[in-house]
Amino acid sequence: MHTVDLAYVGRGMHEELVAHIADQEGFYEAEDVRVALHDGVAWSEERLRRGATIGLGRALLSRLTNGIPWVALTVNTHSPLFWFLARPGVESLKDLAGRRLAVHAPHTAPGVFARIVLRQAGLDPDRDVNCLVRAPGDYGLDLRHLADGTIDAAYVGSTMNPEAVAAQHGWRVLAWVGDHFRIPTVGVAVDPTHLSPDDPGVQAVVRAQRRALHVLHNDPDITVKHLETFLGRHTREEIRAYYDKFVAPHYTTDGQVDDAVATRAITAVAAELGVPETLSAADFYRKDLP
Q: Of 86, 265, 268, 106, whose CA–CA distance to 175 is shortest?
């Protein structure tokens, strides 16, 4: 049996769902591969690159800024699951001017996505918005700070159904990143320096995760059951609404990248980072695996 270390980088079902389904439904075992899932959110690049990673966004940033030759082998979604939540009185992204926004750090993938969306709204995140950087987590402290008025808005991830949380507190969902910026963000990537894309264990992981994508689309009840693992604060009805709006329509059916989306995304990310656009979509996203 092959063994592969697979790291997820972040919090919430956005990164973990497909790997979780593959694990829980026995797809890795069926492919004769043992997958060790690791929370690599605090790992250095050197440690991360010795195994496979789910976080395609971080891998892309690492390749653009540090030259680590990551390649992505399968893509789960092109729609990042991050949202801007705000207190009453903030009705649009433009209203964030002069406001306090809790957000990921600028050099992280979610932070880059946030900054791209803010710029699309005509805001300079370094001058127009009071960005309060915090580490990724379950965003519980952000919700507390929204409730007590310490902050005006928060950029949150997939540990919650943001629309249900907003309705509960009388807040507003200002924007979903997936509506404004698309990029292949989660799947499986490897650094060929340490782990070949053609390694039998790696290819087994890719096949298992693509099988999990079929379950995600073809068996909503099973998928919602798995989503309950990540969205424990919500009712089954709220989780199903989340699945229907943000998961089923936006996750791929076959793990294949959309080249046009990827090309635009690489250009936008390189521009936001202020680095040369040194690679094409074909350089980073491999499409020849069965």
A: 86
Residues 6+ apart with CB under 8 A from 47: 40
Give the span between the Cα atoms of 129 and 104, in whole angstroms: 13
Q: Match 């969902």 to its residue by tokens.
A: 173
Q: Mean pLDDT across the stretch 32-51? A: 92
Q: How far apart are the first and last CA of the chain?
A: 20
Give CA–CA dist 104/109, Å, rounded: 9
Q: How many residues does the chain have?
A: 290
What is the SS3 assignment for 55?
Answer: strand
Tens digits of residue pLDDT in 217-248: 999 999 999 999 999 999 999 999 999 999 99
- Nearest Cα to Cα of residue 157 among 179, 177, 174, 171: 177
The superfamily CATH assigns to domain 2-79+183-284 is Periplasmic binding protein-like II (3.40.190.10)
Q: How many CB atoms lie within 10 A of CB 283?
A: 12
* Residue 75 burial class via C-beta count within 10 angstroms: exposed 0-12, middle 13-18, buried 19 and up: buried
290 pLDDT more than 70: no
Domain extents in the chain: 2-79+183-284, 83-180
3-state class (DSSP) for residue 117: helix
81-126 residue pLDDT tens: 999 999 999 999 999 999 999 999 999 999 999 999 999 999 999 9
CA distance 195 to 269: 25
Euclidean distance between CA atoms 242 and 248, whole angstroms: 9
Which residues, at least 6 apart from 26, have a Cβ–Cβ distance to it below 8 Å? none
Pairing between β-strand 83-86 and β-strand 71-77 as defined by DSSP bridges: unpaired
Class of the 83-180 domain?
alpha beta
